[in-house]
Every structure is written in C-alpha cells, then in structure tokens.
Amino acid sequence: MVTKDVQIEDLVRDVPGSVAYLMDHGIKCLACGEPIWGTLESAAREKGFEDAQIAAFVNDLNALSNAP
Asked: I need a labelling partner for 44 at 20 to 30 A (CA). Which of 4, 8, 21, 66 fits?
C-alpha cells in the first residue's frame, strides 16, 4: 500500500506507472538522471503541493498499484 511516507525508490520499484504519473503531475526530476531521495511527501512538497494534493497522489498511486 502506498502512503505519503513511501520512499521514492520503493514507489518506483513497486508501482508500475508511478514515474509517468508523477511526471504528469510536475514531479519531473524522476527522469532527468538525477536521483530523488526521500519520500513521496517530501518530493511533492518540494514542488509546492499541499496536503490535499498529496492525499490525491496517494489515492491515485494506490489505484495504479492495484491495476492489472
């Protein structure tokens, strides 16, 4: 289950489609060749996202993780 505290490297490994999803929502540095460390919440906050938006990311990413 994805939470706001998931480590980015775990999210990328465990949820197919998470990189594309995050890039579509403005967290583009996942693909620039520079590694991201930390949690989903910290990466989102660095891009200016607030609690409600981060909660929506968590819901959407959980849906992606359960997709066939």
From this structure: 66
How far apart are the C-alpha atoms of 65 and 47, rounded to whole Å?
A: 23
Residue 21 tokens, joined: 């999803």
Average pLDDT for the chain? 88
Predicted confidence at residue 58, as pLDDT, reads: 98
Half-sphere exposure of 20 (CA within 13 A, CB side): 4
- Asked whether residue 1 is assigned to any structural domain, the reply reads no
| Domain total in the chain | 1
- Evaluated on CA atoms 16, 35, 57, 20, the torsion sign reads negative
- 34 within domain boundaries: yes
Q: Could you list the residue range(s) of the whole structural domain that residue 32 is in? A: 8-65
Instruction: Provide, for the chain, the percentages of residues in helix, strand and coil under a 3-state DSSP scheme, each rounded to the nearest 5.
Output: 55, 5, 40
